[in-house]
Amino acid sequence: MNEGFREPREIECSGRRLLLVFDGGNAPGYASVAVALTEEAVKRGFEVWAATEGFRSLTSDAMSNPRFERLIVGREDRYTLLSRGIPARSMGRRVRDAGSDFRSERYLGFLEPAKQAEAADTIRTQGFTHVACVGGNGTFEGARALVPRIGGVPIGFVNVSIDNDLSGDRAIGFFSGVEAGATEARGLYEDSYTHKRTYLLEMMGNRSGRHALHCGVAARAHLIVLPFIELPRDVLTEIAEALEAASHALVVVAEGYAAEARRATNQSASVYLAGQLAEVGLRDRKDKRVIAEPFSRYLRGVQPAYVDVSTAYLKASLLVDAFDAGRSEVMPYVLATNDVGLRAFGDVTREDAVEPALLPLLTRLKLPRFSALARVLAGRVSS
């Protein structure tokens, strides 16, 4: 502990002390949720704290001092709290900050039951009366692991993820990621038109490829290749011939494409697909450039779009309402303006499928073999 700073357990609490735990891969909107939960909870009489390193801060593996920070809306009270040895941070103006101050990168130690038990003990001894976990699928599993260990302390979860891989909700960060990704993809599309090139752009999407699919459709890519698509030689030949005939093209390929086949080659998805196409005739040359663009992680650090900010406030309001009503083990969901509510933890599962209705938009080229393959895959996804 930093000299002069006190832990929550050393400070008298008015009765309701909320702990925010941010974990998992970074996504646009973590800061928005931190601000929204702070505003909503403080308004209802909660004292709000954040674990500075997510789940790690609740265990003996904690590396950051202080382990917990008090969150307030404005800065008026910050210096008073600091003078009392309470680490405090004002959140009111940080609603569109990129990244997050309070998180760890997928703390794998939390998979161990002993660490989960240690975290539950920390929650109790620090005097936290409520817990809200924020992140994606892995963070949700961490929240569920705490349930039988925290002795009835109400716990909730807010879904923030570019991957959007939990059922029954639209993750905060997904729309922001699509906006940023589609902007990048469309820029390459225009460059391909100007310079008469073929770009193979690798985009986020390790399992389903949902992000790559939405970005590719929005940018009007000529072809989108997803992780679950296996391209036989005759289809690769068809694609190569169509791209050779096209004056320019943008191909979006999800990072998870041909993952098993690539394992021994240590190649990226875009480079691997470029190699496959080269084998059937589409080669990079001076008069016909074929360029494999590497995967970029910059999406994780972009500012959240305001559509995700408004969703953060709505989910925060729903969750604090649930706490006020004495509920626990709930996830606020927002699927559309008039489709909002709460889901019990037991009703939430991992979901890696893409929307079948979008699969006919995988290509704008005349590719009858590929299109037939896409229709078959759409039927499998639908079932």
Topology of helices and strands:
Layout: E1 17-22, H1 30-43, E2 47-51, E3 68-72, H2 78-83, E4 88-90, H3 113-125, E5 130-135, H4 137-146, E6 155-159, H5 174-195, E7 198-203, H6 210-218, E8 223-225, H7 233-245, E9 249-254, H8 259-262, H9 269-279, E10 290-293, H10 306-324, E11 330-336, E12 339-344, H11 368-382
Parallel strand pairs: 1-2, 1-5, 3-4, 5-6, 7-9, 7-10, 8-9
Antiparallel strand pairs: 2-3, 11-12
Task: Report on this structure.
With 383 residues, the chain is of the alpha/beta class. It folds into two domains: 8-173 and 304-347, Rossmann fold (3-Layer(aba) Sandwich), CATH 3.40.50.450; 178-300 and 354-382, Phosphofructokinase domain (Rossmann fold). It has eleven helices and twelve strands. A six-stranded mixed β-sheet has the order 4-3-2-1-5-6, sandwiched between helices. Helix 1 (30-43) runs parallel beside helix 10 (306-324) and helix 5 (174-195) packs across helix 6 (210-218). The chain is elongated and about 75 Å long. The model has no long low-confidence stretch (mean pLDDT 93).
